[in-house]
Specification:
Radius of gyration of chain B: 25 Å
CATH architecture of chain A: Orthogonal Bundle
Strand content of chain B: under 5%
Distance between the termini of chain B: 30 Å
CATH superfamily of chain A: MetI-like
Oligomer: heterodimer
Structural class of chain A: mainly alpha
Order of helices and strands of chain B: HHHHHHHHHHHHHH
Largest sheet of chain B: none
Chain lengths: 300, 302
């Protein structure tokens, strides 16, 4: 390395910012600018004609969202409720699957592919393509099937149960957990592979040393695997929370969509999204801080 | 005692020598193999079921699609739905291959671009302690919340201001700035031992070379995973919001146009579901093999 007058730190800083630059430009264009635009929308009354015009109204939109709108708070509460049970289950499930997939045994490659399938099938595209069909034939059953993202819809489990002569109350009780199982499975595909990539990177000499010292598999898991994968646990917690909050099937998101693209009330929809995201962002930061402090970073 | 038992097990020759997943194999019995297979099998059955359904629906003759109550397996499997899909594809205004090319091109360009840009940014964010980096890290976590749904309208304005409407740029550039991949990679890169980077620096490696020859190979599993994630997301994107020329639109758009229509198209719309699955599935399989190969050749050893 050539040494000029700049100090080492300054040199490194220049490099670091140079590396960061392409991404920063991108993030400013697609994230920061839209963010401020939507903030300005939320603080004004938006009228769309050939372009759009803004009339500042202060916090009126926020007041409407919190005090007058009958849907927002209800949807919001139900989303939080979903989050509380989903995130822990998704995490445990995907960690377990990743551990199982990491081993090599007969057909382990095929299993990996099978566990990735729900990710493909639950993506936006297939959700629309398959539900396109489901919606037309099962609209009357939608009330029974409470779940929103469920390929199982096309199977109509409830129809079978109805044939067996069960009451609708019983059917609801039976189908709800099944739908939840699919919700969890379709939501944990990516997490499984994030965990898997983390498991691959745990240095194997750690296990060899532990084995030499007589540690059993249980101890190895808690003393080596778990701490080493901890940074990715953080990633997956954050990802699962984000995924729960921002999927299009989420009731608040649906409501925002409906407000902005059907009712063309951009002001109110921006205000609601801002309230929503501030709340969620707060939860996210809290969780992030909480876990990050307990995370073990293996640097040396 | 436990140690001796371990050595005894080690002495017993195993029938197969495996390269990967080495640590757990040392003391594992074949009964454990069976048990594990059983557990994975049950879980996999749940994951496999939707695909089974999708394929089943695709090979049902059209009258069977409307059976009430619906049947799980079809009585008369047929390829009519696929035939219909193909004949519909012949009749599109722009050649069907053009749509396919657009989708593959856009998906690959976004995947490559995002992995490159985000990994470049992730390295300093994970490994260098500089003023401003902590703020950026917090910002990344926060920014994950703002998905395209919220910024759609504003994004449109930005793209039109840049003059990118009705070009490939509109579909390729914005998704590259996503923060999710960056967040995953950054956290992964924090686990790379500092001593490796120090040693490289001592030997006179430039930052660029450290990034390209040390950080990237070591974090190969994670950026391949991110690539799967990004490809998967972009593959399903319908770009018709930003692009008006028919020759620049993507496959999901074309497929939806083909299949939404009369009830006669119902069979074809089931076939589309299966047909659209093929490329992401292949991408995943190739990708995962790459990850396994990395594992066999280079562990993260100091």
């Amino acid at each position: 390395m050539k040494h000029k007058h700049s100090s080492l730190m300054k040199k490194r800083a220049r490099w670091a910012y140079f590396f960061l630059l392409p991404w920063l430009i991108g993030v400013i264009a697609v994230f920061v600018i839209p963010l401020f635009l939507s903030l300005s929308f939320s603080l004004s009354e938006v009228t769309v004609d050939s372009g759009y015009s803004l009339r500042p109204v202060g916090f009126a939109n926020y007041k409407t969202a919190l005090l007058l709108d009958e849907n927002f708070l209800r949807y919001f509460a139900s989303t939080i409720g979903d989050l509380l049970y989903r995130v822990p289950i998704i995490l445990v499930y995907s960690f377990m699957v990743a551990l199982l997939l990491k081993q090599s045994y007969f057909g382990s490659q095929i299993f990996k592919f099978v566990f990735f399938l729900p990710v493909i099938l639950s993506s936006d595209l297939f959700f629309k393509l398959l539900n396109n069909f489901g919606a037309k034939t099962t609209s009357s059953l939608d009330a029974v099937m409470s779940s929103s993202v469920s390929v199982l819809k096309s199977l109509n489990l409830s129809v079978y149960l109805k044939d067996l002569g069960l009451s609708s109350k019983m059917i609801e009780l039976l189908t709800a957990p099944v739908n939840k199982v699919y919700e969890i499975i379709t939501c944990s595909g990516i997490q499984i592979f994030v965990f898997l990539s983390a498991l691959y990177s745990v240095p194997s000499q750690l296990y060899e040393a532990a084995h030499m010292e007589g540690a059993n598999a249980w101890q190895q898991f808690w003393k080596i695997t778990f701490p080493m994968v901890m940074p990715m646990v953080l990633v997956n917690v954050v990802y699962s929370i984000v995924d729960t909050f921002v999927t299009e099937s989420n009731s608040v998101m649906e409501y925002v969509y409906q407000l902005s693209f059907k009712n063309f009330n951009f002001g109110l929809s921006s205000a609601i999204s801002w309230l929503y995201f501030l709340a969620v962002g707060l939860i996210l930061l809290l969780v992030f801080r909480l876990i990050n402090r307990r995370t073990f970073y293996y640097t040396d | 005692m436990a140690c001796e038992a371990g050595i005894r097990k080690l002495k017993k020759p195993r029938k197969k020598v495996r390269l990967i997943g080495n640590e757990a194999q040392i003391g594992r019995k074949s009964s454990g193999d069976v048990l594990m297979l059983l557990i994975v099998g049950i879980m996999a059955a749940f994951s496999f079921f939707p695909l089974l359904m999708a394929i089943n629906m695709a090979i049902k003759p059209i009258n069977e699609l409307f059976y009430y109550p619906p049947r799980l397996f079809t009585a008369h499997p047929t390829l009519d739905n696929f035939k219909m899909l193909f004949s519909l594809m012949q009749n599109t205004r722009v050649s069907f291959l053009r749509y396919a090319f657009n989708t593959v091109f856009i998906s690959l360009a976004v995947t490559l671009g995002h992995v490159f840009i985000a990994s470049m940014a992730a390295y300093p964010l994970a490994k260098l302690k500089l003023p401003g980096i902590k703020t950026i890290n917090t910002m990344i976590v926060f920014s994950l919340m703002f998905v395209s749904a919220v910024t759609d309208v504003a994004n449109y304005l930005t793209i039109s201001w840049l003059g990118w409407l009705d070009t490939y740029f509109a579909s390729i550039i914005p998704p590259m700035g996503a923060t999710l991949g960056l967040f995953i990679m950054r956290n992964y890169m924090t686990t790379i031992p500092d001593s490796l980077l120090e040693a490289a620096r001592m030997d006179g490696c430039s930052n660029y070379r450290i990034y390209w020859q040390i950080v990237m190979p070591l974090s190969k599993p994670v950026w391949l995973t991110v690539a799967i994630l990004v490809f998967q997301q972009v593959w399903g994107v319908d770009n018709s919001g930003y692009v008006y020329r028919e020759s620049l639109k993507t496959l999901p758009y074309a497929m939806r146009q083909i299949t939404t229509g009369a009830i006669v198209r119902m069979g074809a719309s089931q076939a589309v579901g299966v047909a659209m699955m093929i490329i992401p599935a292949l991408f995943f399989i190739v990708n995962q093999t790459k990850i396994i190969n990395t594992m066999a050749t280079s562990g993260m050893r100091e």
